[in-house]
Amino acid sequence: MSALRRIDHGTDHLKTLALGDFELKSGDVLHNAQITYATFGTPDKPAIVNPTWYSGVIGDCFWLIGSDKALDPEKYFIIVPALFGNGESTSPTNSEQRPFPRVEYFDNVRAQRLLVEHLGVTHVAAVLGFSMGGQQTYEWAVQHPDLVDENSKIIPICSSARTSPHNFVFLEGPKSALLAGDKNTLSRKAFGRVWAGWGLSQAWYRARLWEKQGFKSLDAFLEGNYDQFGLVKDPDNLLVMLDTWQRGDVSKYSFDGNLDAALRSIKAKALILPCMTDLYFPPEDSFNELASFSDKERASVVPIPSVWGHAAGGQANPEDQKWVMEKVKGFLESK
C-alpha cells in the first residue's frame, strides 16, 4: 500500500451481510460479525471478486471498475468485500469485542465465500487483488477450488502466496512503532515514517519524484503523506490487518505448510503482477512461487516496469495504473 493517493468515495455503495458469531481458525469467535461489501453489475454475469488491501477501504478498489476499465459492470458481476479490521467489515472501531480476536486470510475468505453464495454465485470467474488483496486471491484459489476452478482466473498484484520472512520482519517495524508509544500521536507518526522507507523504491527517492507530486522538499512530502497516513488510520484496525498479513500462508491449514503442494493444487489460470522494485513482495518471490504451479502454460509472472515500488500496483501513478489496467483487461478477455 501507499499513502500517496486517497479518494473519498462516500459510503452510499456499502452493503453488509450479517454472519452472527463467526468461528475463526484460531478457535476464537468474532461476535456479531458482519462482512461489508459493494457490488457492480448483475448476478447473471460472470462473477469477479476483488478484495480490499492493507488500510484500504472498498472505495479504493474502484479505480479498476467502470465501463471503460478492466472490470466492466456490463460484462461482469463485481464483488468487492472488505477485510476484517479495515473499519468497514467487523473491526476494532465498530465492535465492542476486546481483546479483538486474531483473524487470518482463511477466515476472511471463508466469510467472502458465504457472501458470494448469499449473492447467488455458484462459480467465480476471477479473483484479483492488490497487496493483501492478492494474498486473498491466492487463498481463494487454494481453499475453494470448487468455485475457483480450471475455468477461473486469478490476478495477484504486488503480492505473494506466503508472507516471506523479510516481509514479516519489515512489518515488525511499523507494528513496534505503534506499540512502543501506546498508539499515541507520536507513535502513529513514527508508524508512517517507517512505512515511507518501504512503500516506494530507492529509485523513486533517488529521482526526487516527490517534486512531481507538488512537494518542495522531502520533509514536506513525509509530513504531507506518510505522517498523515499514520494519523488518519485507526491504530487498532491497522494492527489487526497487520497481524493477518504477517500470518499469510495459503498452505498453512490445508497442506500442512507445504507451499509447493498448495500452489500445485491451483486449478485457475494465473497472471501474477509483481513490481520490479517492490520491497515487500519482490518479483523473485513470485518467480519462486511460479515454479510450483502444475501447469506453467496457464500461469505467468509479468513484472510491472516501474520505480514506484509497491505503490505501482495500486493507483498512485497514472502510467502504472494504465499498464496494470491493460494487463488485467487483456487477461480477463483472453481464452
UniProtKB/TrEMBL annotation:
UniProt domain AB hydrolase-1: residue ranges: 68-149
Positions annotated as active site in the UniProt record: S131 (nucleophile), D278, H310
Record keywords: Transferase
Pfam families per the UniProt record, alphabetical: Abhydrolase_1 (PF00561)
InterPro entries named in the record: AB_hydrolase_1, AB_hydrolase_fold, HAT_MetX-like
GO molecular function, one term: acyltransferase activity, transferring groups other than amino-acyl groups
UniProt record similarity statement: Belongs to the AB hydrolase superfamily. MetX family.
PANTHER family: HOMOSERINE ACETYLTRANSFERASE FAMILY PROTEIN (AFU_ORTHOLOGUE AFUA_1G15350) (PTHR32268:SF15), HOMOSERINE O-ACETYLTRANSFERASE (PTHR32268)
Name the record gives this protein: Homoserine acetyltransferase
